Amino acid sequence: SYGYYPAFADYAGSCTLSGQTFEQVVEELSGSLLNYGCSALFVLDTGISTMEPVDRALSRLKSKRTLHLKIYDGPR
Predict the structure, then answer these.
(1) Which of 4, 14, 34, 63 has its CB surrounded by the most CB atoms within 10 Å?
(2) Selection from 60, 69, 76, 55 nearest residue 4 by Cα
(3) Which DSSP string corresponds to 49-63?
(4) pLDDT of residue 76
(5) Percent of the chain whose pLDDT exceeds 70
(6) Distance CA 67, CA 70 (A)
């Protein structure tokens, strides 16, 4: 998978999208799935740097059928 992981960009073989590109990918894929008629969309987010871009992308969809599930949500 590809995502927005700037913290790992210096490691050999690591690939990262720009924040803007990642945000657009999330918005377009989510919008497509919702337009196909899925009743609910759960976005499972396993990153830290990805939380804000995913939030912004989903908020632009203005859909009550999306839920952003964050695996990491700060220290516990």
Answers:
(1) 4
(2) 55
(3) TTHHHHHHHHHHHT-
(4) 64
(5) 95
(6) 9
